[in-house]
């Protein structure tokens, strides 16, 4: 998730777990520890983009990292705050909980999270939330503001934080329901159209959990489309076929970046040519305004023959060409097709 969400959520967890003993210092420690797994961003300063993609949400988002770091950080905190009579064991559990919530929440996005590094490179992705979803984050943000500006003896502090957890968890629950509904409808649509697919995934479009980007893989490519939970007809995802174009990779088959990208994409990729330049598209991140143009370019596009032009490869396509009309079309499509 975005950094702001981790900050406010970390502060709220800190208040609930340790606020009575530590006061507002618990919020500080919560923010610090909740944000700690994202320390892997420093890798971008010396790694090329392809390597950085695998480094991010890798070892620092693993269970082993939590098991190693939580006790060490607890040792430092215990020495710093000994007058508070908060034991090393409690510090360890507090910090482990913060980091565990971070890595579980990140697994709700499409990126993939390395829970089992370094023993397994498998990335966990539940595809339940867009990386920044205001309807998920607003509740801990409101609670954070209350905690920040209220006195430590304000009786309802913990209630505000707990209420924010309940509302955000409920939103994830709604996402599960919506995803299940969309998946069922799209698979029925594929059967109705006679599409033989072997793998499938769906992921929410930006800033909501009602309109979903869907992908079905067959032997040579992918069917992609968008489906709203409010769509009424059986064939409203409007699936469009895109070939994988493996043959395009012959000139770059020995490029190390290519193999890293294939691993990162979990096999959900197609190869295109932009002005004779080979482009690796990771389908998991959706299309740029794909709900209004099914032939739109993909958010994640990596220039295989121009490696120096791939900075911010994840972020650069997320909100490209967004304007008032694009937002209006998004909300219109969210409301469903009849």
Average of per-residue pLDDT values: 93
Q: Which H/E pattern describes the elements?
A: HHHHHHHEEEEHEEEH
Count helical runs.
9
Low-confidence stretches: none
Q: What is the total number of structural domains?
A: 2
Distance between the termini: 33 Å
Helix fraction, binned, reads: 40-55%
Summarize the main sheet: 4 strands, antiparallel
- How does the helix and strand content classify structurally? alpha+beta
Dominant shape:
globular
Give the radius of gyration: 22 Å
Number of strands: 7
Strand content: 5-15%
Organism: Paraflavitalea soli
Pfam families: YdjM
Protein name: Metal-dependent hydrolase
Keywords: Hydrolase, Membrane, Transmembrane, Transmembrane helix
Task: Give short descriptive properties of this protein.
alpha+beta; four-stranded antiparallel β-sheet; hydrolase activity; 9 helices; three-stranded antiparallel β-sheet; single chain; 14% strand; 338 residues
Explain briefly what this protein structure is:
Keywords: Hydrolase, Membrane, Transmembrane, Transmembrane helix. This protein has helices at 3-22, 25-35, 49-55, 63-80, 88-106, 134-149, 157-192, 256-265, 324-334, and strands spanning 199-204, 211-217, 221-228, 240-243, 269-274, 277-287, 298-303.
Describe the structure in your own words.
This protein has helices at residues 3-22, 25-35, 49-55, 63-80, 88-106, 134-149, 157-192, 256-265, 324-334; strands at 199-204, 211-217, 221-228, 240-243, 269-274, 277-287, 298-303. The protein folds into 2 domains: 3-173, no CATH class; 193-334, no CATH class. The protein has 338 residues and is of the alpha+beta class.
